[in-house]
Write a structure and sequence with these properties.
heterodimer; A: mainly alpha; disordered N terminus; B: alpha/beta; 8-stranded mixed sheet; 11 helices; globular; disordered C terminus
Chain lengths: ~290, ~350
């Protein structure tokens, strides 16, 4: 906000982000994670140029074929190019995971802030709802919701957001409760800052960096969850190439053609791992106490 | 106008309700401050000084509540204002400087951002204008190179610099009353002297009324025009600074003055025997009774109210009526209390 009005980069944000970026650049594992994510993102973005074949083209004469020059990872039970389907699948998994997470944060963070900052009855009611939702195993509940809504990626998004926001609400509430008691918040109140001003200026900045770390770590879980629901037939519908759906498609052929499950499985694991590595790195980089290590 | 009463506090009472009962942290406090003058509030830890400061601007959160009294600031009764109106008064007309400059600034925002935000949130000015005002303010509290300082984070400043920033922030909207709650307690003595000098100069410049809360009698002697001595949530003695220091009326004030270390004094420190009373369910008698060397039968009956014992001088003690002794007479035999060399 300040930056836009002054027409120059905000030295505050710049200073903090710059030092965090420097710390991150020294973390080899985090860089590896970021590299994998960027590569997958680039593959997804450039899919039409990179994919050697049409991911939807069925050729029953070539079904379950091993890798060769024109089909780098072989073909599936319908003779479709697995590599092309993986590349196009990244176009589904990454954006849907990101979008789901954005929706989750959009719901969870404000609710957490309200709960922590206002306290009292609002807090009690919100936290009881959170307790109830947390008492269910999340993925099973999402499965039920997605099952009731019917198959489809949008429904998977809704189902995951419906069970996952509680984690963010509870997390943010905890941070807000701690920050709210700080003396600088009392000082801000004493100088007549409004509640909205205190939340946006003094509390949200303290919330953002831990939430960034949590969100990065959750991206991996999100991709797993979406793949999992798709594997169970609730997410992307055939013939859409999606990693979880591909796993499911390959299941009957596990004995004769394990590559049908191997490559989508590796893709899911690799991306989930990459987000975890990056998340760990970010946690260290965004923690000012780690400055001494640099 | 200097000399006019700007803040009048009547019978202010703040209570905290806990599982054990009601704690009267502030119990019927009455005082007034004139424009451009300094009221020193002195008392030991836990006597309700800080709660009183927060009560003045209505910043008491549950389980505490302001149970009664009036705070008149320049013709407005603050405790009857709506939350929105009260918010506009805070900072703009009555500002607070806190004890610990280490924790009163937001660690993730630069000094410049915090100062400009404070100004912008109260006055309709452009950010650039607020920035220029912030630069002037920083220079005004004796900080060198304000341009550079604006980009600094609080952790990059020393304690003294931070307290100067806090004072600049408190004075940024030219409040009529500045409440300083132990502003120099966390600082070392040389910095303390500088900050106090700076506050005195600014007060003269701006004509602000100052309420200076401290447990340091030396600071009071150097700064205050009027002194209020607090004990167990009440004011037990109130009067012109010189008068209270030379002719203390209340046995507690006398004991406090005797407990100040002095260079060259050979009798050492004379502590006040006993403990401050538990504010939970305080009995309706003189709160100082268990520690008072002068206590008599009448002290057990009812709580003493402030009564006149000199021009502008008030004391809340049943025994001090007609017994004003010049300071220096031994109330405590050195043998009776423990002595600290």
């Amino acid at each position: 906000m300040t930056a836009a009005k002054l027409g120059q980069p905000d030295p505050v944000a710049q200073g903090l982000l710059l030092s965090a970026a420097k710390r991150l650049a020294r973390d080899k594992l985090a860089l590896l994670g970021m590299g994998i994510i960027l590569t997958v993102a680039a593959l997804a973005f450039l899919a039409p140029y990179i994919a050697p074949n049409d991911p939807l083209k069925v050729d029953l004469a070539r079904r379950l074929a091993p890798a060769d020059a024109s089909f780098p990872l072989g073909t599936d039970h319908l003779g479709r190019c697995i590599f092309s389907r993986l590349v196009y699948g990244a176009r589904v998994s990454l954006p849907v995971a990101g979008l789901t997470l954005a929706v989750i944060m959009l719901i969870g963070i404000p609710i957490g802030v309200i709960s922590g900052y206002c306290g009292g009855k609002a807090d009690a009611i919100i936290m009881r709802v959170v307790d109830i939702l947390l008492a269910f195993p999340g993925l099973v509940l999402a499965l039920v919701i997605a099952g009731m809504l019917g198959p489809g990626l949008i429904n998977v998004l809704i189902a995951l957001a419906a069970v996952w926001w509680v984690e963010y609400a509870r997390f943010v509430r905890g941070i807000v409760l701690a920050v709210k008691e700080k003396e600088f918040v009392l000082a801000a109140r004493a100088s007549g800052t409004s509640d909205l001003g205190i939340v946006t200026r003094h509390i949200l900045p303290d919330v953002l960096s831990p939430v960034t770390v949590l969100a990065t770590l959750d991206m991996g879980k999100m991709i797993l969850a979406i793949s999992g629901l798709s594997f169970l037939g609730l997410g992307a519908q055939p013939p859409t190439p999606e990693w979880g759906t591909m796993l499911n498609d390959g299941r009957p052929y596990m004995q004769v053609a394990p590559h049908l499950m191997l490559y989508p499985g590796l893709a899911i694991m690799g991306v989930a791992l990459a987000f975890n590595l990056l998340g760990d790195g970010l946690r260290d980089a965004l923690d000012p106490r780690c400055t001494a290590r640099v | 106008m200097p000399g006019d009463t700007i803040l009048q506090v009547c019978n202010l009472t703040t209570q905290f309700t806990g599982p054990g009962g009601v704690v009267k942290a502030v119990d019927g406090v009455t005082f007034h401050v004139k424009a451009g003058q300094t009221l020193g509030v002195v008392g030991e830890s836990g006597c309700g000084k800080s709660v009183m400061c927060l009560s003045l601007i209505g910043l008491i959160d549950p389980p505490g509540r302001i149970a009664g009294g009036e705070v008149w600031l320049d013709g407005k009764e603050l405790l009857r204002l709506s939350p929105g109106e009260l918010r506009r008064v805070r900072g703009r007309e009555i500002a607070l400087v806190f004890q610990d400059p280490m924790s009163s600034l937001n660690p993730v925002l630069t000094v410049g951002t915090q100062l400009t935000e404070t100004i912008v949130s109260h006055v309709r000015v452009s950010r650039a204008k607020a920035r220029r005002a912030a630069l002037r303010l920083l220079a005004g509290v004796g900080l060198p190179d304000p341009e550079r300082l604006m980009r600094r984070y609080p952790f990059q400043l020393s304690g003294g610099m931070r307290q100067r920033v806090m004072i600049a922030m408190a004075l940024s909207l030219r409040p009529k009353v500045l409440i300083a709650d132990e502003p120099t307690t966390a600082l070392d003595v040389t910095v303390q002297a500088q900050i106090l000098g700076e506050m005195k100069r600014l007060q003269k410049e701006l004509g602000t009324a100052l309420i200076l809360v401290t447990h340091d009698l030396g600071v009071i002697a150097a700064m205050a025009d009027t002194v209020a001595v607090m004990y167990a949530g009440s004011i037990v003695e109130y009067g012109p600074c010189t008068e209270v220091f030379t002719h203390p009326g209340h046995p507690y004030t006398k004991a406090l003055l005797r407990a100040v270390p002095r260079l060259g004094a050979d009798d050492g420190l004379v502590p006040i025997p006993g403990q401050p009373p538990n504010l939970l369910n305080l009995p309706d008698c003189c709160a100082f009774l268990p520690r008072c060397p002068l206590s008599g039968e009448e002290c057990r009956g009812n709580r003493p109210r402030l009564h006149v014992c000199g021009p502008e001088h008030r004391v809340a003690c049943h025994r001090s009526i007609g017994e004003l002794q010049p300071y220096g007479e031994d109330l405590y035999e050195p043998a009776a209390g423990r002595r600290f060399g």
